[in-house]
Write a structure and sequence with these properties.
Length: about 100
């Protein structure tokens, strides 16, 4: 059993004047989390807001960015307090997952 965390951000979100998704990725790497990826959406919405698309000039940094990472429960529990601080205003989903192939070693 492993834990997968999905964080829903926007490209405008920042942490200490740097893009939040990159700062989260950097933090997860520093904390030796097993694996993480960032997806930059071409369209989407957050918080029941309007749909933003990549072809709209007025998107203005509101396109969704999704950070997903997976690791063992103890590692995820260790990094979650800092992630909650970094993305205090954003949705974070945590779920138990079954590894169908590979391992966390």
């Amino acid at each position: 059993m492993a834990v997968q965390v999905t964080m829903y951000l926007t490209e405008r979100d920042s942490w200490h004047h740097h893009p939040l998704h990159l700062e989260i990725l950097k933090y997860l790497r520093e904390e030796n989390v097993f694996g993480a990826v960032v997806f930059h959406a071409v369209a989407g919405f957050l918080g029941r807001g309007r749909v933003h698309t990549a072809h709209l000039v007025e998107a203005g940094g509101e396109l969704p960015v999704v950070v997903i990472f997976v690791d063992a429960e103890e590692h995820v529990s260790r990094v979650m307090p800092k992630l909650k601080e970094m993305a205090a205003h954003r949705l974070i989903v945590r779920e138990n997952v079954v590894l169908e192939q590979g391992s966390l070693e």
